[in-house]
Every structure is written in structure tokens, then in C-alpha cells.
Design a protein that fits this description.
- The protein has 388 residues and is α/β, with parallel strands linked by helices.
- It folds into two domains: 187 residues, Glycogen Phosphorylase B (Rossmann fold), CATH 3.40.50; 183 residues, Rossmann fold.
- It has 15 helices and 13 strands.
- A seven-stranded parallel beta sheet has the order 3-2-1-4-5-6-7, with helices on both faces. A six-stranded parallel beta sheet has the order 10-9-8-11-12-13, sandwiched between helices.
- Helix 11 links the parallel strand 12 and strand 13.
- Helix 1 crosses helix 14, helix 3 runs parallel beside helix 4 and helix 6 crosses helix 12.
- The radius of gyration is 22 Å and the shape is globular.
Length: 388
């Protein structure tokens, strides 16, 4: 079955683009339509067959019609308001309306309190496509309760993760220049939504209790933030680290890392922390990857973390409380048996999230919607020539 994927895409530094790259590889689909922002630099890889310039309305209809002509059997659409053009990403509707093949939408954001425009766009998108994927039960529940979406229109498929081995961090730390350190890791594109300021405020107590503690903040600054204010946010965080006298205990690794390098950092971490301030967040690739590596996680109770870290698979702390976050980090770092037990439960749960399993679930879904789709309307040649 020929599948086209519509999303941001590498070399764009974007979590959804990375997700799409991995999803396409896991399903055997290699036909990409890149949503192309105005500031995008660098050449796309060969699997990118089409580009949609984000702010050019005509591109959406033209590419939708091209996909129909070239024989795509199903189109997989990634949705988050900011990656599509138009007010609140309204051009996604122009695109799906112009398609003459079934589409499957994967939702990366479901807002509890959307604006009227945001709610209208999401409801119409779900109504128009053949199937909609969410990555958590909490997202499905929110869509049914707040948006009036029928449960039968939703499929829950977890966020994919690499199939990493469960590795003893002590065997990896030396290669990361972290030998003898108790390593806490956060990673992803840097920005205020990551809550790193909260984790930094928690670190003085952690260092007093565990002088070998080192908090690693891994990742380049989000390109949208970089465009707006340069590295001002990173510099504010670094200034606070120096004010607290924590320069030897907090390390910034300022680069965008690929899957292999990220895997090494995860293997070298004793635990991970996702201190996000937005408690409505319904998916996190960072949390998913940490669980896939078998790392114990301390997190604020955003919706996705509350669901995935249930049943002893992680520790939740109140948002906005550096004292509570610090106490949880100290507890896990100081108790290797507890830390290993929490990480093992996370790892076992994440076996259903490895890309081979997730890719198989998407392939079954794609086959189902193609089988249920009406045949395309074809005008016989003889009929067409009557009006020539």
C-alpha cells in the first residue's frame, strides 16, 4: 500500500518531524510531504517528494491533488496547530478537503480550553478524515468530553520509541565524561515549556544531599524561540545556575542530537526528569523515550505523565514546587533498589511502544481505512469525449 506522510520533516529541528521520520520507517512508507516553514534551511532527503510552503494557501490544494494523481492509497497527517499555515493552522482543512484518498490524522495536541477557532478546526478535521489517532487514553477522553467526538472515530496508538537495551548507566558514564556522577537527564528542544527553571531551583537541595549529582540539560534551543529572541532563554538559565553556585553540577549540552547519541545519553543517565509546567500536555516524546530506555522518571503531573507513570512506573510531584521535585530526586538517587524497580516497570510497559509494535498498529489501521473507503470516481474515456 502506498502511504504518504504529511508533516514537518528533517532537517527541520522538530519533535513531530522526528516522529514522522520514525513512523514512516516503521511502516515501510517512504513518500513524504514536508510542511515547509519560511525559515527552513538545508536540503531535504530523497524521500521528500513534495513540499507545502506553510504560508502559501494554493500549495495545500495542489499537493493534495498531486497525491491523488500519483496513486497514494492513504495519507498520514500529523496535526499540531503551529505546523500548518493559516490562522491556528486552518489550512489543514483545505488540504484534507482536496484529498480524494482516505486520510488518517495523528493528533499531537489536544487543548482542554481551545479558542473557538481551534475547536472548530479540530472537530472538522476529525470529522473529515477516515480515522484519528491519539497517543493516550486521556487525549481520547478529552476529545469525547470536550469536543463531542464519538469514541468510535478514535484509535489509541502509543508514541513510538526505539527498541533500546536495558543498560547499566555505570558502563556508559565514562564515555560521557560523567564517571562517578549521579546523573539526572532532561532532553529535547530547549524552551520555557520544558520547565528547566524548576529543576534548576531544585538542584541546591539535591547537591547538598548528594554532592556527586549532575543535571544534564541536553538539546538545542527550539528554532522558533531562537528566531524570536536568540539564546536569551538559555543565557537566563545559565545565569541562574551561576547565581546558585551550581556550575559544577548542571551541564548544558547545546546541540540537536540524533537517535544514536540520544540513546547513549539515556543509557548513561540514572534517572530522567520532565518538570513541565503545562499540565494539559497530552503527549511527550521525551517521557516516552525515557521509559523506553528503562529510566526512572520524576515528573510534574501533566496529563500524559499521569497516565504513563501510573502503577509505580515513575514519581509525580506537584507543579511549581522545587522542594517536592528535589525530595523526589534525592529519594531515587539515594535508593538504587527503588530506582531500578521503577525503571524496570517503565521499561516493561514501554515494550508495547517500540517502533516495530507501533508501526504494525499503524499498518493495520491504514489497511482498515483503505478497505472501507469507497472506490475513486473514474469517468470513462468514452463519456469524457462526448463533451470534448
Amino acid at each position: 500500500m502506498r502511504t504518504a506522510f504529511v508533516s514537518t520533516y528533517p532537517p527541520r529541528r522538530c519533535g513531530i518531524g522526528t516522529f514522522t521520520h520514525d513512523l514512516a520507517a516503521a511502516t515501510g512508507g517512504r513518500e513524504i510531504v514536508a510542511l515547509h516553514p519560511p525559515d527552513q534551511l538545508g536540503a531535504y532527503p530523497l524521500e521528500v517528494h513534495h513540499r507545502i510552503r506553510r504560508d502559501v494557501p494554493n500549495d495545500y490544494v495542489a499537493v493534495a491533488r498531486a497525491l491523488t494523481r500519483c496513486g497514494a492509497g492513504v495519507v498520514s497527517i500529523q496535526h499540531e496547530y503551529g505546523i500548518w499555515g493559516g490562522a491556528d493552522g486552518a489550512h489543514v482543512l483545505d488540504f484534507v478537503r482536496a484529498l480524494d484518498v482516505p486520510a488518517v490524522a495523528t493528533l499531537h495536541t489536544v487543548l482542554r480550553r481551545p479558542t473557538p477557532t481551534q475547536r472548530r478546526i479540530l472537530v472538522e478535521l476529525v470529522r473529515t478524515v477516515a480515522a484519528t489517532v491519539v497517543m493516550s487514553r486521556s487525549a481520547a477522553r478529552l476529545l469525547t468530553e470536550a469536543y463531542g467526538v464519538a469514541p468510535r472515530r478514535l484509535d489509541i496508538i502509543p508514541h513510538g520509541v526505539p527498541d533500546l537495551p536495558l543498560v547499566d548507566p555505570e558502563t556508559v558514564k565514562a564515555a560521557l565524561d560523567l564517571a562517578g556522577r549521579a546523573v539526572i537527564l532532561s532532553f529535547g528542544l530547549l524552551g520555557p515549556g520544558k520547565g528547566y527553571d524548576l529543576a534548576i531551583e531544585a538542584m541546591p537541595a539535591v547537591v547538598r544531599a548528594l554532592p556527586t549529582a549532575c543535571y544534564v540539560i541536553l538539546g538545542a534551543t527550539h528554532p522558533d524561540l531562537l528566531r524570536l529572541e536568540g539564546e536569551a532563554y538559555r543565557h537566563r538559565l545559565m545565569a541562574r545556575v551561576h547565581e546558585l553556585g551550581l556550575a559544577d553540577h548542571i551541564r548544558f549540552v547545546d546541540r540537536f542530537v540524533g537517535r544514536a547519541e540520544l540513546g547513549r545519553w539515556l543509557e548513561g543517565a540514572d534517572l530522567c526528569v520532565t518538570p513541565y509546567p503545562n499540565l494539559e500536555q497530552i503527549v511527550s516524546g521525551t517521557l516516552s523515550y525515557a521509559m523506553g530506555a528503562g529510566r526512572a522518571v520524576v515528573s510534574t503531573p501533566y496529563a500524559y505523565a499521569t497516565e504513563l507513570l501510573a502503577d509505580g512506573r515513575g514519581i509525580l510531584v506537584p507543579a511549581g514546587s522545587p522542594d517536592a521535585l528535589g525530595a523526589a530526586l534525592i529519594e531515587l538517587l539515594g535508593d538504587p533498589v527503588l530506582r531500578a524497580s521503577v525503571g524496570q516497570r517503565a521499561y516493561e510497559h514501554a515494550r508495547r511502544m517500540v517502533w516495530s509494535e507501533v508501526g504494525a498498529a499503524y499498518r493495520r489501521l491504514f489497511a482498515r481505512v483503505v478497505a472501507a473507503a469507497p472506490p475513486p470516481l473514474r469517468i470513462p474515456t468514452s463519456a469524457a469525449t462526448v463533451h470534448a
